[in-house]
Design goal:
The complex is a heterodimer of chains A (429) and B (310). With 429 residues, chain A is an alpha/beta fold. Chain A has 13 helices and 18 strands. Chain B contains eleven helices and nine strands. Chain B has two domains: 136 residues, 3-Layer(aba) Sandwich (Rossmann fold); 148 residues, Rossmann fold. Chain B is α/β, with parallel strands linked by helices. Classes of the chains: A alpha/beta (429), B alpha/beta (310).
Chain lengths: 429, 310
């Protein structure tokens, strides 16, 4: 196992809204713990010095939505390879989705995930299922899941169609202080759609899934929050209509939050013209108007978090024809680069806002203690970024066991140079 | 051929073609038409070349038409037909392509239930690929033979009013026809129950109506699309009976049509559902001309894509 680091980060620009720091600081790390943050610290006792004069230092990024496939689908990803991909992308903690085999609907799966992540070491926060076996029929044993370490509950990939059951899920989850994450999709309406429904699905001869599938689901879930007051987090929001519903719910004071993926704020359904299966995901890439609504939602805070929905699939899986290929794209290694390119350099968000979306808000929303702030005395969880480095995404840039990235070939500006995770230094400079 | 040359490796759809390219195919087909009238219906054009018919979906008419076109051009043909269910977990399109490459074939004709499958195959292969129908996307040779037949009967395509009636949503024939006909200046109407018309169809440059009379009124050509009977179970329409009452082309409906209207259908016809039997066999019907012309059009496409210099 990597030793705890002893290092002086020299001259980096700190972006830490939680401590109101925005400027050049030196950060001294001893035995993995942040010893001192000051404008200038002299190196002593031959400590390693990291010249970070051209880099920005953020509170460690947190990804609220990853599929690490273990147990059950280790050919696609393992907890080890998933954590390595996360670190390469500057993430120091992730929330794992429970659609493993067996699903994460009992203590032993939660414990397996936690013990595997400790070997890296990395911090995973497992989400348990909402319903037993993700079948949408009976409640999962949420109190047990919580005791084992789950921080949220979701049937990600499935929407709980039964409204009465969903009401009970919300009531029971909220009693256990678990956030309910909803994969909002009316599956009957999206049916066998392989892309967003609209002029491009018509033009490319592909079956479409309408935006209303998401809007209807979000609408029902929000009304159930009105009834139950449960904490609801909308995963991978993708439509203008659903964002507007979340905005109104927040205005009404309901505990509703939302995340968006990098592919949904940067790519549109027009790209499916090549029938590239790496562009097949769920929810599908949407229209230009939806992308604009997403950016507006990020800007005004309706969408408080960015999460990757890192969904690895093997090359063979994705080699199938578009009707049969599984949904999903990986995203950990490219998320920061895409966000800097599309949101920071195009002046949608400031660096402080990016720190909120990638770290502060996820930590707050899911009560992840020790995350979202750079603080003396705490174990170092930091992300070091070069805002300007230009790079092209190739398979060689990917660390994940699978290479199904929708961003292959993309030219990005901004790249993660290092991560400090649980006091260990992962250097990619 | 007035200096026009075919430059593409593949024929994947009419969406990507320029009007001139479509015209080149139609004009070339005319010169192949005459071969069908000869006592010995065979020319040596593709001698020594191998064409593979790769059908991942059941097909009788299209496969026979392609095979016959290949044989009349003296190509060696290999047929491979399978149901997709047996290949999903087996050989990938990429492996299929590599195997074909290793066998040094000249052209591949592909039908596949997934939209975009021939496009991907074409990317893996150095030799040409002809799309014989992919999912609900395109069926370019069917549309070309339809356009050839319209041009033959009406003397032109520009300004000709063509109405498609039936399941537009799931029809690759309609989609390819829409791309091709609108490029050559025909006026296209699509008609069917709202449930079977794709969203934003107007943006493809066609008139949309759910009213059969409107579609028939003033049309020079009525092209019927086969209704898949299982669509009724998916709630696209309440019953075959109601569909036939509302959208069937029969002698009564044709009373309101132009006297020189022609009736087309890509086959196979559900007699008594989208078309009444007397119309199928009646004087307006040019359904069998379509079948005959299909051979000439497919010979033209095979010829152009094989890059043979005449």
């Amino acid at each position: 196992m990597k030793p705890l680091s002893n290092i002086l980060i020299k001259g980096s620009h700190l972006i830490d809204p939680a401590s109101e720091r925005d400027g050049k600081f030196d950060v001294l790390i001893e035995k993995g713990t942040i010893k001192k943050i000051a404008p200038a610290i002299e190196p002593q006792n031959g400590i390693e010095v990291l010249d970070a004069g051209s880099f920005h230092l953020f509170p460690g990024f947190i990804d609220l939505h990853v599929h690490f496939r273990e147990p059950g689908f280790e050919q696609k990803e393992t907890i080890l390879t998933g954590c390595q991909a996360a670190l390469r992308g500057g993430f120091v903690a992730c929330v794992t989705m429970p659609n493993t085999q067996p699903p994460c609907d009992n203590q032993s799966v939660v414990e397996h995930i936690l013990s595997k992540s400790r070997e890296v070491p990395f911090r995973l926060f497992p989400a348990g299922t909402l319903t037993r076996n993700r079948e949408g029929k009976e409640l999962s044993e949420m109190a047990d899941l919580k005791r084992a370490g789950a921080i949220a509950v979701t049937d990600d990939g499935n929407w709980v169609e039964d409204s009465l059951l969903m009401r009970r899920c919300m009531e029971y989850a909220s009693m256990n202080n678990l956030v309910v994450i909803t994969h909002a999709e009316d599956h009957r309406l999206s049916a066998d759609g392989v892309m967003n429904e609209g002029i491009f699905s018509t033009s490319y001869g592909l079956k479409g899934s309408p935006v209303e599938s998401e809007i209807i689901a979000v609408s029902r879930d929000i009304e159930l929050v009105r009834l139950t007051k449960a904490d609801l987090h909308v995963a991978h929001i993708s439509t203008a209509g659903a964002i507007e519903l979340v905005r109104r719910a927040q205005k009404d004071g309901l505990p509703v939050t939302a995340e968006v993926t990098p592919h949904h704020f940067s790519l549109t359904d027009e790209l499916l013209e090549t029938y590239n299966t790496n562009l097949k995901m769920n929810p599908p890439l949407r229209s230009r108007a939806d992308v604009e609504a997403i950016k507006k939602g990020l800007k005004d805070g309706t969408i408080g978090m960015i999460a990757t929905d890192h969904a690895p699939h093997t090359e063979e899986d994705k080699m199938a024809e578009i009707n049969y290929a599984p949904v999903g794209t990986i995203g950990l290694e490219t998320a920061a680069g895409v966000a800097l390119t599309e949101l920071y350099h195009k002046k949608v968000l400031t660096l402080a806002q990016l720190a909120e979306k990638f770290s502060i808000n996820p930590a707050k929303r899911f009560n992840l203690k020790g995350y979202g702030v750079i603080r003396e005395g705490a174990l170092a969880n930091l992300t070091l970024v070069d805002l300007e480095e230009k790079w092209t995404v190739t398979k060689d840039c990917l660390v994940s066991k699978s290479r199904n990235s929708c961003f292959l070939g993309a030219e990005l500006r901004g790249r993660v140079k290092a991560a400090f995770c649980l006091g260990r230094f992962w250097n990619y400079a | 051929m007035s200096g026009r040359v075919w430059k593409r490796k593949d024929l994947l759809g009419l969406k990507d073609l320029e009007a001139e390219e479509i015209e080149l195919i139609l004009d070339t087909a005319e010169s192949f038409q005459e071969i069908g009238n000869r006592p010995i219906k065979k020319v040596p054009t593709l001698q020594g070349r191998t064409v593979v018919n790769l059908f991942f979906e059941p097909s009788t008419r299209t496969r026979i038409s392609f095979e016959l076109a290949e044989k009349r051009l003296s190509a060696d043909t290999v047929n491979f037909s399978t149901d997709i269910s047996s290949t999903i977990k087996g050989e990938t399109v990429k492996d299929t392509a590599k195997n074909l490459e290793a066998l040094q074939v000249s052209l591949v004709i592909m039908r596949h239930p997934s939209s975009g499958a021939p496009h991907r195959l074409a990317r893996y292969l150095k030799c040409g690929v002809i799309n014989a129908g992919d999912g609900i996307n395109e069926h370019p040779t069917q549309a070309l033979l339809d356009m050839f037949t319209v041009r033959q009967k009406k003397g032109k395509l520009k300004g000709v009013k063509v109405s498609f009636i039936g399941d537009i949503l799931h029809s690759r024939v309609a989609r390819s026809n829409i791309w091709g006909l609108t490029k050559l200046g025909a006026e296209v109407t699509v008609c069917g129950p709202r449930t079977l018309i794709p969203r934003d169809a107007e943006q493809l440059g066609v008139r949309v109506t759910t009213n059969l009379e409107e579609a028939v009124d003033g049309a020079d050509v009525i092209n019927l699309l086969r209704i898949q009977l299982e669509r009724q179970k998916e709630s696209f329409f309440p019953s075959i009976r109601e569909y036939a009452i509302t959208y069937q082309i029969n002698r009564d409906v044709l009373k309101k049509a132009k006297p020189d209207v022609v009736i087309m259908h890509p086959g196979p016809v559900n007699r008594g559902i989208e078309l009444s039997s007397d119309v199928v066999d009646g004087p307006y019907s040019i359904i069998l001309d379509q079948v005959t012309n299909g051979l000439a059009v497919r010979m033209a496409v095979l010829y152009l894509l094989s890059g043979v210099k005449s």
